[in-house]
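Q: How do we represent a protein-ligand complex in a form that can be generated token by token?
A: Start from the inputs.
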Amino acid sequence: MIKINIKKMLHGSSGEMELACDFEIEKNDFLAISGPSGSGKTTLLRIIAGLEECEGEIAVESEVWQNKKIKLPPQKREVGFVFQDFALFPNMSVIENLLYVKKDKEFAFELLKMAGLEELAVRYPNTLSGGQKQRVALCRALMRKPKILLMDEPFSALDPVMREKLQNDIAEFHTRFDLTTIMVSHSPSEIYRLANKMIVLNNGKVEKFSSPKELLLKTSGSAKFAFEGKIIDIVGVDVINIAIISIANQIVEVVISKKEAEELKIGDKVVVSSKAYNPLIRKI
Ligand SMILES: Nc1ncnc2c1ncn2[C@@H]1O[C@H](COP(=O)(O)OP(=O)(O)OP(=O)(O)O)[C@@H](O)[C@H]1O
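Then emit the structure tokens for the protein with adenosine-5'-triphosphate bound:
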């Protein structure tokens, strides 16, 4: 079990904010942390890694990483950290980046092989694609066989194809190396695919803590499907009213009642759902 009960005053753009989180996860959990910009997600990861001072307690299985008396330095905490911007050493080849963490050539090649990067071992980071760099960063984070893998928006700089490849690697590494993983992400699909638990952080506090299914699925009750969108226009055509709604990259029209047309306005966030019909899925 991993227990985190920490406090830290943060100086945000709109004044002081207390980061105060108290939660527990189990070994082998994959926890996703989501929440608005500035809510304290990165700081929480840095605190777990020992890179930021704070008050409180952190215990990982039977080991205390921090309490009133103890504060293990980052190198004594068994964590691997994957940053948003890869943070590879530019003057070292791929294999040197891994061996810098631990001189275990056999394990380094095993990781590179798993990530399909074996051929790139002697290449330098500036000759790699974003997806390859992030997979190297993931391998490097695992060199010390960490108990906890921390990832701060690992997919944010990647295109959709690379994102999917990295997701597969992360899922495989998580299981194979018996990891407990904590990942900051804004992407519902990535969270749903990878995580079994999810926290929504708001203003430094744990606002929601549940399964991704519970927190992300928009269908409730008997609704067959549901999407979140924003009203971009409301128009009257003959005697009917139509709301024009933007959902992801699509624009849809939904017929609404006169009363709804009076109550809704442009800019409102809405959920569009259907109960009566099963949705049809057509490959495009
Ligand atoms: N060491 C620190 N001391 C005081 N305040 C800090 C410290 N580190 C970060 N902050 C402030 O705390 C707030 C939260 O920052 P943090 O980077 O943790 O948010 P975030 O949720 O990760 O945001 P984003 O999604 O934009 O990356 C910010 O306003 C930041 O300026």
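Residues 2-216 form a domain with the Rossmann fold fold (CATH 3.40.50.300). The chain is about 25% helix and 35% strand.
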